[in-house]
Design goal:
heterodimer; A: alpha/beta; D-Maltodextrin-Binding Protein, domain 2; 2 domains; 11 strands; 14% strand; B: mainly alpha; MetI-like fold; 12 helices; 0% strand; flat
C-alpha cells in the first residue's frame, strides 16, 4: 500500500510537469538562439565558455536552440516567476518581446560597471539601440552584417570600368548578365530558402537603397521601380536559389559565384579557401548604400538564481580579448573599438575588409531591424518574402501585389502601434504611404 | 472461498492489460491533440472560441498550394508505393533463392530518417550532384541540368515523389509480405486446379484475401503522407508548400501557435477522413453491408 502511495505521488509530480531543477550550486545557465549550428555550439562549449570556467571555476550550462523554443523557455520561466536561466544572449530584434514580458532586467548599472574597468567601451550607436521602454535592455555582445562574397574568377565578368568595392545595384545586375552571356549559366545566388535570410535583403538593403525607407515608401513609385529591377535580377539568379539557406554551400560547390548573405553564413567558404574569394560591400541604389547592422546583446533574467556569476560571465564575454576570440571562432564582429583594433588574418581579414568597406563607404546608410512588433515580430519579414514570391516567382502585377501587401503591413503596425524602423522617421504607428 | 472473485478478475483482465497502453495514448496522444484543437480555435485574449485562426490560415498565400500539393503528392506516391510493394511482396513470396537478402536490402531505407533521405536525394539532384555528374560523364548531357529549378515545379514534385517512394515503399512491402505469408497455400492451389491463370489467381483470390493487410498499409502510408515534411523542405524549400511544413513554419518562423494548430487540426481531419474512407471501402467481405 505504501509503495502504491509513493508511486502515485511520483506519477502526480510527473503529470504536473517537472519543476525546473536549479543547476548544481555555482553553475551559470546561459541560453541563446545564436551559435546554434553544431560546430558553433561545440566551439562555444569547448573554447569560449571553457575559458571562462578555467578562469573562474564556474561551470556554464549553455543551451542554444532555434528562436521558437528559445523564446518559449524564457517566457515559461517568466510566467512562473522563477527558473534556472541566469544569462541570455539574443538578437536586438527579439529583446522588445523579452522587455515587454518582463524577462530581462535593466542592464545599465552592469554596463557602467564594465566600462568602469577601462579596458572596453561600447560603440555608442549599439548602446543607443539597446535602450527600450526606458531601460538598457542588453549589453552589446557581438555584431554582424550581410554582404557579398564572390569567387575571384567571377571578377573578370564585373562590368568594365566599374569598381567592385563601390558596386551599385545596376553593376550587380550587369555582372549577372555578363556571367550568363559568357557561360550560359546563372551564377548569382541569394538565400531565398525558408530559413534563408533573403527577407533581410529586401527590407534592409533593397528597400532603403531604392526608396530611402523600409516601411513608409513600401508601395511608392520608387518601390515599383525596385521590384521591376528585382524581377530582372531574379532572371540572372541561380534557379535553385529558392532552397539556399547558407550561401557558403553553393559558393563552395561552385553552383554560385556571387552570393549575398549574413557574414556568419559566408565565413565557412572564406575559411576553407580564403584565396579563392573576395568580400564586397552590398550594392548602392539611388538612395545610398543601405545595410543592416545585426546586434546581439547579453542580459540577465529578472529571476537569475546565480546573478553574481552571471555578471562575471557577461564581463568575460564582452572583454576585448574574448571579442577577438569570438570573431576568430564564429565570425561575429566586435562591439568595442578596443577589440576591433586587433587585426585578424586570412579569411577573417578578407571579411573584415569587406565589412569595413561597407560601413565606411561615403554613401553608407545603416538600417536597423524593426522593433516594437512584440509577439508579432515574426510576421514582418514574411510580408516582404511573400511580396517577392508573388512578383518575381509567380509574376503577378507589381502595383496590385504592393497594394495588398501594404495593407498587411499597415494592419501589423496598427495592431502593435510600433514605430517605423530607421531610416524611416520614428512615427508611431508606422504606416505605408 | 468466494468463487466470484476469479471470475471478476478474469473479466477485468483485458482492461487491466490495455490500461498502460490506454494511459500512454491518453497522455501522449489524446491530450496533446485536444490541446492543439483548442489552441487552433481559442481566442488568445478572451479564451473563447473563434474562427479567426482558421480564417487566417485559409487566407494565407501558401494555404491552397499546400492543400493542393499535399493531396497531389499523396495521390502520386501512395498508389506507386502500393503497386511497387505488392510486386516486391509477390516476388519475395515465390521464395526464390536469396529472397531473404532481397527483403533486407529493400528494407534498408526504412532505417533512414526522412531528413537524411531528403539530403541523399538532394545530393543526387542538384546541379553539382551525382546524377548530373554521371549524365555528363556518360555524354548524355553536355552541361549539368537543373532538376531542382523554380521554373519546373513538376520536376520538384517528381523529385519529392521519387524520394518518398524510395524511402517508404519498404514499410508497405513488409506489411504485405506478412499478409501474404498468413494466407494458406490451399487457396492458390485450388484456383490452379480449376485452371485459373496467374493473373486470375492474383485478382480473384490473393488480392481479396490480402484486403486487411492492404487496408493497414494504405492507412499507414496515407497518414504518413499527410505528415510529410522534411524531404519536401529539403528538396524544394517552400516552393512546394505542404500542410505539415506550413504547420512548422507558422510555429517557428511566424511564432504563431494558433494558426500552426489550425493547420495541425486540418491535417488531423484529413487523415481521419481518409482512414474512414479506407475502412469503409476496403472492409473485408462478409462484414456488414
Amino acid at each position: 500500500m505504501r509503495h502504491a502511495v509513493v508511486a502515485l505521488a511520483v506519477l502526480a509530480v510527473a503529470a504536473l510537469g517537472l519543476p525546473a531543477w536549479p543547476g548544481p550550486a555555482g553553475e551559470v545557465v546561459f541560453t541563446s538562439n545564436q551559435l546554434t549550428p553544431v560546430e558553433e555550439q561545440e566551439w562555444a562549449r569547448n573554447t569560449l565558455l571553457a575559458g571562462f570556467t578555467r578562469e573562474t571555476g564556474i561551470p556554464v550550462r549553455f543551451i542554444t536552440e532555434p528562436e521558437g523554443p528559445y523564446v518559449d523557455r524564457l517566457m515559461a520561466e517568466a510566467r512562473a516567476g522563477r527558473g534556472s536561466i541566469d544569462v541570455t544572449g539574443t538578437l536586438h530584434g527579439i529583446f522588445p518581446v523579452l522587455v515587454a514580458q518582463g524577462v530581462v532586467r535593466d542592464m545599465l548599472d552592469i554596463q557602467r560597471q564594465l566600462e568602469g574597468r577601462r579596458d572596453r567601451t561600447f560603440y555608442r550607436d549599439l548602446l543607443a539601440v539597446a535602450r527600450m521602454e526606458g531601460i538598457q535592455a542588453f549589453v552589446p555582445w557581438m555584431q554582424a552584417t550581410y554582404l557579398v562574397a564572390a569567387r575571384r574568377e567571377a571578377l573578370r565578368y564585373f562590368p568594365q570600368g566599374r569598381d567592385p568595392m563601390r558596386m551599385t545595384y545596376d553593376d550587380l545586375l550587369q555582372w549577372g548578365q555578363n556571367i550568363r552571356e559568357a557561360t550560359g549559366e546563372r551564377r548569382l545566388g541569394f538565400p531565398v530558402g525558408p530559413r534563408g535570410l533573403y527577407g533581410r535583403f529586401l527590407h534592409g538593403y533593397a528597400y532603403p537603397s531604392f526608396t530611402g525607407s523600409q516601411v513608409k515608401r513600401f508601395k511608392s513609385p520608387e518601390a515599383v521601380a525596385m521590384w521591376q529591377y528585382l524581377r530582372r535580377l531574379w532572371g540572372v539568379t541561380h534557379p535553385s536559389s529558392f532552397r539556399y539557406e547558407f550561401m557558403h554551400e553553393p559558393l563552395l560547390l561552385g553552383e554560385v559565384w556571387v552570393a549575398w548573405d549574413h557574414t556568419a553564413r559566408l565565413l565557412p567558404a572564406l575559411r576553407q579557401r580564403p584565396e579563392e574569394f573576395v568580400v564586397l560591400p552590398s550594392p548602392a541604389g539611388p538612395r545610398g548604400r543601405s545595410f543592416l547592422s545585426v546586434v546581439v546583446g547579453l542580459s540577465l533574467t529578472r529571476w537569475a538564481p546565480n546573478a553574481e556569476a552571471g555578471v562575471r560571465l557577461v564581463e568575460y564575454l564582452t572583454r576585448p580579448s574574448t571579442q577577438v576570440l569570438t570573431l576568430q571562432g564564429v565570425g561575429f564582429f566586435p562591439v568595442s573599438p578596443e577589440a576591433a583594433r586587433v587585426v585578424p588574418t586570412g579569411g577573417l581579414k578578407v571579411m573584415a575588409d569587406g565589412v569595413a568597406a561597407q560601413a565606411g563607404a561615403p554613401d553608407a546608410r545603416t538600417a536597423l531591424l524593426p522593433v516594437g512588433l512584440g509577439a508579432r515580430t515574426g510576421e514582418f519579414v514574411p510580408i516582404y518574402v511573400d511580396t517577392f514570391r508573388l512578383i518575381a516567382i509567380e509574376g503577378r502585377r507589381i502595383e496590385d501585389v504592393l497594394a495588398s501587401q501594404a495593407r498587411r503591413l499597415e494592419e501589423l503596425y496598427r495592431a502593435t502601434n510600433a514605430p517605423c524602423p530607421p531610416p524611416d522617421p520614428a512615427e508611431r504607428p508606422c504606416r505605408p504611404d | 472461498m468466494d468463487e466470484h472473485r476469479p471470475r471478476v478478475l478474469a473479466a477485468a483482465t483485458p482492461y487491466l492489460l490495455v490500461l498502460p497502453a490506454a494511459a500512454y495514448l491518453a497522455v501522449f496522444v489524446v491530450y496533446p491533440m485536444a490541446q492543439a484543437i483548442r489552441l487552433g480555435a481559442a481566442d488568445p485574449h478572451t479564451g473563447g472560441w473563434t474562427l479567426e485562426h482558421v480564417r487566417r490560415m485559409a487566407s494565407d498565400l501558401y494555404f491552397w498550394p499546400a492543400v493542393r500539393y499535399t493531396l497531389w503528392i499523396t495521390a502520386l506516391a501512395v498508389p506507386l508505393q502500393v503497386v511497387l510493394a505488392l510486386s516486391m511482396a509477390l516476388l519475395v513470396n515465390t521464395r526464390f533463392p536469396g529472397h531473404t537478402v532481397f527483403l533486407y536490402v529493400c528494407a534498408i531505407p526504412l532505417a533512414v530518417s526522412d531528413l537524411a533521405a531528403g539530403l541523399i536525394w538532394l545530393s543526387l539532384f542538384t546541379e553539382r550532384g551525382y546524377l548530373n555528374a554521371a549524365l555528363v560523364q556518360w555524354g548524355v548531357l553536355r552541361s549539368p541540368f537543373n532538376f531542382l529549378s523554380h521554373e519546373h515545379p513538376a520536376w520538384l514534385v517528381g523529385a519529392i515523389v521519387t524520394t518518398e517512394v524510395w524511402r517508404a515503399t519498404a514499410i508497405v512491402m513488409v506489411v504485405l509480405v506478412a499478409g501474404l505469408q498468413l494466407l494458406p497455400r490451399d487457396y492458390a492451389e485450388t484456383a490452379a486446379v480449376f485452371g485459373a491463370s496467374w493473373w486470375q489467381t492474383l485478382r480473384h483470390v490473393l488480392l481479396p484475401l490480402l484486403r486487411p493487410s492492404l487496408q493497414t498499409a494504405l492507412i499507414i502510408r496515407t497518414v504518413l503522407a499527410f505528415q510529410l515534411f522534411a524531404t519536401v523542405v529539403t528538396l524544394s524549400g517552400r516552393l512546394v508548400p505542404v500542410l505539415a511544413g506550413e504547420t512548422y513554419f507558422w510555429y517557428t518562423l511566424y511564432r504563431n501557435p494558433h494558426v500552426a494548430s489550425a493547420y495541425a487540426t486540418l491535417v488531423l481531419l484529413l487523415s481521419a477522413l481518409f482512414v474512414w474512407g479506407y475502412l469503409r471501402t476496403l472492409r473485408p467481405e462478409g462484414e456488414g453491408t
